[in-house]
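Table S4 entry, RNA helicase.
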Amino acid sequence: MDSLVVTPISQAAAKQRAGRAGRTGPGKAYRLYTERAYRDEMLPTPVPEIQRTNLATTVLQLKTMGINDLLHFDFMDAPPVESLVMALEQLHSLSALDNEGLLTRLGRRMAEFPLEPNLSKLLIMSVALNCSDEVLTIVSMISVQNVFYRPKDKQALADQKKAKFNQIEGDHLTLLAVYNSW
């Protein structure tokens, strides 16, 4: 599952943002970082998203379009080969790809969902296991930001309230318990 990680902006983005100050009227740019941070921590340009994220969903979509030779595909910004291999391995382990790396029937069905492949398979398999309502609820809840509100001045109280829903089987069933109580 992808997560949002806070990282420094690039030097190019910092320059562009500073250039916006005063563009249409008087203005100043206040940089809230040190020269050392600018020099040592910020990359000169941003890293393209395709080079820093899990590619399983992208690879599944490309395979659905009939693009099978991903190592020679003309990406605008080519992802690392390791990322492509990891995505292919993940899709194979989910049975979305066969041993030759070709899309399976299950893989085609998984590609129809606007979800990460593991969640798509979970939904598809839930039909056979007769638990679609529960799985749909869980997938919905893990596909959004944290459903728990934890204000800084009331963290202990928030933790106490959340504990009422805890399920020993894990976080997914805890989320289901929260939904069912609502």
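The mean pLDDT is 89.
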